[in-house]
Design brief:
Strand order of the largest sheet: 3-2-1-4-7-6-12-11-8
CATH class: Alpha Beta
Structural class: alpha/beta
Order of helices and strands: EHEHEHEEEHEHHEEEEEEEH
Mean pLDDT: 93
CATH architecture: Alpha-Beta Complex
Strand content: 15-25%
Length: 259
């Protein structure tokens, strides 16, 4: 039987309209093992009123505080032997990755979606980066050690995705890949993409890592008939985040990726 990981996300009151749609989407896929880490009392109360499993997550209000708080919680989950998927609340699940797509067939310690170019130094070095907005972790000793190293590094970098990519590179990750099957633009940059998962092993650790195909787990809109999760980049500046996701086609079920 396939494992059933806990699905975790973090939300504040400002994100509740997105969180509402995110939870409804997961439930429509038959996924109910969800936990929200509430960044304020309003979110905790909102979850309680709707029967959503929620835990308080003390937050200083800045992004750096959030990245560090998330890493501490990930470490605790692993220490408790918890298998989990972390998903940003604006990463819209179109299909169930436990049953469909590449992720369902992978058994690696860490399974990550693909980012675009952040951090730039790792992007320049290898042409791609891992994204902290959607990933699946199995509670192995190697995964626990890796996340402890990332948490330690993030106290200096002040960014979880920067630290994750740099710690992995510094550990001598060897990726099973060629030059990429195609490239996608983001601003003036290009990033490499593959049609199947690519995998990495480390020189001095039994940790195994996989990166999922961008066309299945999308940061940039890409036409593909079997998209699993759409986690589209939204320009900063506020506004209606739900409407921005709708305009990009994040909620479409036809697999066309919103253009």
């Amino acid at each position: 039987m396939p494992s059933v990981p806990r699905i975790v996300t973090f939300s504040s009151e400002a994100f509740l309209p997105v969180l509402d749609l995110w939870i409804a989407g997961l439930r429509s896929l038959g996924l109910g093992r969800i936990r929200v880490y509430a960044l304020d009392e309003a979110t905790l109360a909102w979850c309680g009123d709707r029967g959503v499993d929620a835990c308080p997550c003390p937050w200083g209000g800045g992004l750096t505080d959030l990245w560090l708080a998330r890493l501490e919680i990930f470490r605790r989950l692993l220490a408790d032997g918890e298998e989990f998927i972390h998903s940003d609340a604006d990463a819209i699940w179109v299909r169930n990755p436990l049953e469909e797509g590449s992720a369902a067939a992978l058994g690696d310690d860490l399974v990550f979606s693909q980012g675009t170019y952040w951090p730039p130094d790792i992007h320049r070095r290898q042409g791609f980066v891992l994204c902290c907005g959607w990933f699946w972790v199995r509670p192995t000793d190697a995964a626990g050690a890796f996340f402890r190293a990332v948490e330690d590094d993030a106290r200096t970098s002040r960014n979880d995705q920067v630290s994750l990519n740099r710690v992995l590179a510094a550990a001598g990750a060897r990726w099973s890949r060629g030059e990429g099957d195609y490239e996608l633009p983001v601003g003036e940059r290009l990033f490499r993409c593959w049609r199947e998962p690519i995998r990495a092993t480390l020189e001095s650790s039994p940790l195994t890592v996989a990166m999922l195909p961008h066309r299945e787990f999308q940061r940039m809109p890409e036409a593909y008939e079997r998209v699993i999760v759409r986690h589209f980049r939204i320009p900063p500046g506020g506004g209606d985040r739900v409407q921005a996701l709708r305009d990009l086609g994040a909620f479409d079920r036809d697999g066309q990726g919103g253009g």
